[in-house]
Structure formats: structure tokens, C-alpha cells
Design a protein that fits this description.
InterPro entries: DSRM_RDM1 (IPR057652), Nucleotide-bd_a/b_plait_sf (IPR012677), RBD_domain_sf (IPR035979), RDM1 (IPR040224), RRM_dom (IPR000504). The chain is α+β, with helices and mostly antiparallel strands and 274 residues long. Helices cover 29% and strands 32% of the residues. Strand 3 and strand 4 form a beta hairpin. The longest helix has 24 residues.
Length: 274
């Protein structure tokens, strides 16, 4: 029985990428995106779908890039849709990407975002196929109102929260834990601002811990349509009794306006189609 292992990392392999050509300029990019997503997401969870206009020297129209998490899903989508009327009853060219994965991306792709982790897990396992439980969520700053930043001006505050979270996969008898610590420095102009920052940082640290927990999870897609779940054993695996030590050393910084994953996707998109 054939099987494919899918992890919670950004797919970079060319055999997971499908290219669509000869899309007529009858509709705008948003309409084309919605139509293609409806078609290709029926084959499996889609990490990325981008629609772009043809180059100036080419006939008017569009092309699209679709990234799947699974190479098997990408191959099935290409085989079944190539030459079929997908938009306005016009046949489109659908091919697997022949672009080689850059050496600096091969085997070192970054972990998925929180939203993509949820999307992949829900699509493959179902909404009842996994649960998450917070083991610890605590404030790590010393003062109740937040630490005053050393050398900072009046109203400068520093918040730090730590979270340890556990994933459970009840149908597979597997669990995975993740931990994160996030810090935020800001100018506090009132209690409402401080409360908003607390709530936001708590949400972000929970999401970061969930992403780390998913990073150890492997989804094994079997040829008969069934799914198995395995958890990688890594040196940083820890038990519930270890949470204090984990929170002390497992720290991430967070600042206003970080580069989001869509910007990274744009760079990867340029690498793929250039």
C-alpha cells in the first residue's frame, strides 16, 4: 500500500506545485481565484493559490500557481484537470511544476503559520480528529502592571507570557506538546492599552505553542484514503513536570509589524516562476 508523509511545514517540493496556463481575461483575478480554489481544493488541502496576469509580451490573460501539501493530491489534480473546461467551458493547460527546489530551501522549509496548521489538521483529520489543551499559560513579568523597561521613558512597559500546550489525537493514541515565550515592549498610555496588549500577547503565545506542537506531528496518508498520525521524537520533547524549565529557555521575541507569511510566500512565488 502506497503512503505519503505530510508534515506541518511549508511545502517547497516541485511535485507538490501545479501550474495553470491559458486562463482567458474574461474575469478578474478574484473571480478566477475563487473558481480555481473550488476546483483544486476538492483534491486535497491547498497551501497556496496565486493568480497573476500574463507577462506584457504574452497574450492577455492569467496564469495560476497552486501548492498542495501532498504530492499525491497535486498529481491527481493535474491528471484530472489538464485539458478540461475549468473556466467558461474553456480547456486549460495544467502541469506539474518542473522548477527545481533551491538548495537552500530543500529540507529546511519553515513551519506553517497558525492558520495553515488549523486548516491542514481540520482538512485531513476532521474537526473532531484532534484537540488542544493548555497545560500552562502564565505571565513571566515581575510586576502586576508590567515591568518598566530599563532605560526607557515614562510609560514604557514590558510584558512576557509563557505557554505550554498539548495536542491530542484521540483516534490515533498520540500526543504532542509545544511551548513558547513571547515578550512585548510598548508605551502604555492607559489601563485599556495595557489590557489590550495582555490579551493580544496571550493569544499570540498560545498560537506559537500550538504551531510548535504541530511541528512534531507527521500525517501519513495511505493509498486507501485512511490517515495515520505519528509524533517525531526530538531532543526537546518534555514532560508536564518540565514546564518551568521549558518556559525559562524557550523564548521568542515579538515586535510590532513583523514580516508576515504572505510576504515570504511572495518571495517564494518569485523564485518558483522566474
Amino acid at each position: 500500500m502506497e503512503a505519503e508523509v505530510v508534515d506541518f511545514r511549508v511545502p517547497v517540493e516541485s511535485n507538490k506545485t501545479v501550474l495553470v496556463w491559458d486562463i482567458p481575461p474574461t474575469h478578474g483575478e478574484a473571480h478566477i481565484h475563487a473558481q480555481l480554489h473550488a476546483v483544486f481544493s476538492s483534491f486535497g488541502p491547498v497551501y497556496l493559490l496565486k493568480v497573476s496576469p500574463n507577462a506584457p509580451l504574452h497574450p492577455p490573460g492569467f496564469y495560476a500557481l497552486i501548492k498542495f501539501f501532498s504530492a499525491a493530491h497535486a498529481a491527481a489534480a493535474q491528471r484530472i484537470t489538464d485539458g478540461r473546461p475549468l473556466l467558461d467551458d474553456l480547456p486549460l493547460k495544467v502541469k506539474l511544476s518542473s522548477k527545481q527546489t533551491p538548495h537552500f530551501l530543500s529540507g529546511s522549509s519553515r513551519v506553517l503559520s497558525h492558520a495553515h496548521c488549523l486548516e491542514l489538521a481540520n482538512h485531513v483529520l476532521g474537526f473532531n480528529g484532534w484537540t488542544s489543551d493548555i497545560i500552562t499559560l502564565k505571565k513571566l513579568t515581575n510586576e502586576e502592571e508590567g515591568e518598566e523597561e530599563e532605560g526607557g521613558g515614562a510609560g514604557q512597559r514590558r510584558l512576557k507570557f509563557g505557554c505550554v500546550l498539548q495536542l491530542r489525537f484521540p483516534h490515533h493514541g498520540q500526543t504532542s506538546r509545544g511551548a513558547a515565550v513571547l515578550a512585548d515592549c510598548f508605551t502604555c498610555t492607559g489601563p485599556d492599552v495595557f489590557l489590550q496588549r495582555c490579551c493580544r500577547l496571550q493569544r499570540l503565545v498560545r498560537e506559537k505553542a500550538l504551531v510548535q506542537a504541530f511541528s512534531s506531528v507527521l500525517l501519513i496518508l495511505l493509498g486507501n484514503g485512511k490517515v495515520m498520525v505519528e509524533v517525531k521524537q526530538t531532543p526537546d520533547q518534555f514532560l508536564a513536570d518540565d514546564t518551568e524549565g521549558v518556559l525559562q529557555v524557550n523564548e521568542f521575541s515579538w515586535t510590532e509589524g513583523p514580516a508576515d507569511e504572505e510576504e515570504a510566500d511572495d518571495a517564494e512565488w518569485a523564485l518558483t516562476v522566474s
